[in-house]
Amino acid sequence: MPDASDQEYIEYVTARLPALRRLAYGLCGDRDQADDLVQETATRLYLRWARIAEVEQLDAYVRTVLVRHFLDTRRRGDDGRVLGGKLESDDQVRPVRWTCR
After folding, report:
1. 58-62, long-range: CB within 8 Å, 24+ apart, which pairs?
2. CA 98 to CA 79: how far, in whole Å?
3. What is the structure's pLDDT at 87?
4. Ordered per-residue pLDDT tens for the chain, 101 residues
5. What sign results for the dihedral spanned by CA atoms 58, 47, 15, 33?
6. Which helix or strand (DSSP H or E) is residue 81 part of?
């Protein structure tokens, strides 16, 4: 059974999930990448929950975490996706980096 702190985290994230997904999708325009952004944000939030649960403007803090993570992936030019295609021979297959708009 989760302790009180974990329960607060679960309730907070569950209530904010739709808004976080909308924000993430608005940033990148891709549902899968938006879900990845939200998942990473939720993970980062959980790891810091004991310190930030009492922040006055927690929603703004969480949105900032999500936006900064999105910008970090854009700056690196890496959103974690590698696409490849099959040509006439397997030797000709080259990975292609896919980035959000």
Report:
1. 58/12, 59/16, 62/16, 62/20
2. 7
3. 47
4. 468 788 999 999 999 999 999 999 999 999 999 999 999 999 999 999 999 988 899 999 999 999 999 999 888 876 555 445 444 555 555 555 555 55
5. positive
6. none
Cα-trace Rg, the chain: 17
Assign residue 9 the CATH number of its domain: 1.10.1740
Say how far apart CA 76 and CA 73 lie, in whole Å: 5
Domain count, the chain: 1
**Euclidean distance between CA atoms 45 and 58, whole angstroms:** 10
Distance CA 64, CA 20 (A): 11
